[in-house]
Amino acid sequence: MMGTRGYLALGVAGYLFFLLSTLPAGLAWSWLAIDPSVLVLGEMSGTPWSGTAGRVVVAHFETGPLHWRISPESLLRLAPRVDFSLDGPDGLHLQGAVVGEKELILNVRELSFVASLAGLTPLRMQLPVDLLGRLAFRIEHLAVNREGRIIAIDAGGRLEDLMIGVPWDKKLGGFTLEAELGVDGEVLIHIKDVDGVLRTALVLKIYPDGRYSLRGSLKGGKDMDDQMANLLRQWIGFERNKQFPVRIQGYL
């Protein structure tokens, strides 16, 4: 039978669990002291185990609400799993799970991302035209170690109904995106045309320090009309029957 000390320990453990389970999410978040230039969570409700943040700011990009839930079963396995969903303007929807594992600071599983390009304006490269369309991306697995380096990625997606907006309203078609890990920890995203008026052989390389480079070539597809060819020639010196080299770099 359990002695007095055993009952006392059980009672203390139960009381501590009660305190943790009812702790306001906002208070717990303030204890983490996350740099506000990296991430801001506001208008929080619920507890650390299940709650909502009505306002989310990531690198000056504001969205929300964010919903999260920590699986109690995962805590027993010492690999806590946080399931979350995030919604924002212009059809932005993000959902997935972050799983805690030894030696990792980020371990994402089954993350799906859907958004219109119009809603991603703060994150896009500076272009001389207004691009419209829909981005759908899925990450089966993404792992980041304690040094902040990506050590595993399994991801891919599509750019759908891509087009140049007003006043031209010209369709560019669709493109596939396939991600892989580079030899130095950078992420390589291969961009290939599916039904576009542009034939693409492009690789977007994203480095751990936030730099990016876009390399490859463009060529006119069979569905490119004269107006589109003339526009591209005026903007970037593109010639329909020749490969056009692409060399762009900068910081995200």
Description:
- The protein is of the alpha+beta class.
- It is 17% helix and 51% strand.
- The chain contains four helices and 14 strands.
- It has helices at residues 4-22, 25-32, 72-76, 226-236; strands at residues 39-46, 50-58, 61-63, 66-70, 81-87, 93-99, 104-116, 131-145, 150-164, 170-181, 187-193, 198-206, 211-220, 244-251.
- Strands 1, 2, 3, 4, 5, 6, 7, 8, 9, 10, 11, 12, 13 and 14 form a 14-stranded antiparallel sheet that branches.
- Strand 12 and strand 13 form a beta hairpin.
- Mean pLDDT is 77; it is low at 5-19.
Give a brief outline of the structure.
The chain has 252 residues and is of the alpha+beta class. 17% of the residues lie in helices and 51% in strands.
Number of helices: 4
Largest sheet: 14 strands, antiparallel
Helix content: 10-25%
Give helix and strand order, one letter per element, not per position. Answer: HHEEEEHEEEEEEEEEHE
Write down how many β-strands occur, each being a DSSP E stretch of 2 or more residues: 14
Report low-confidence residues grouped into runs of 5 or more: 5-19
Mean pLDDT value: 77
Structural class: alpha+beta
Features:
4 helices, alpha+beta, 252 residues, elongated, 14-stranded antiparallel sheet
Topology:
Elements lengths: L3 H19 L2 H8 L6 E8 L3 E9 L2 E3 L2 E5 L1 H5 L4 E7 L5 E7 L4 E13 L14 E15 L4 E15 L5 E12 L5 E7 L4 E9 L4 E10 L5 H11 L7 E8 L1
Antiparallel strand pairs: 1-2, 2-3, 2-4, 4-5, 5-6, 6-7, 7-8, 8-9, 9-10, 10-11, 11-12, 12-13, 13-14
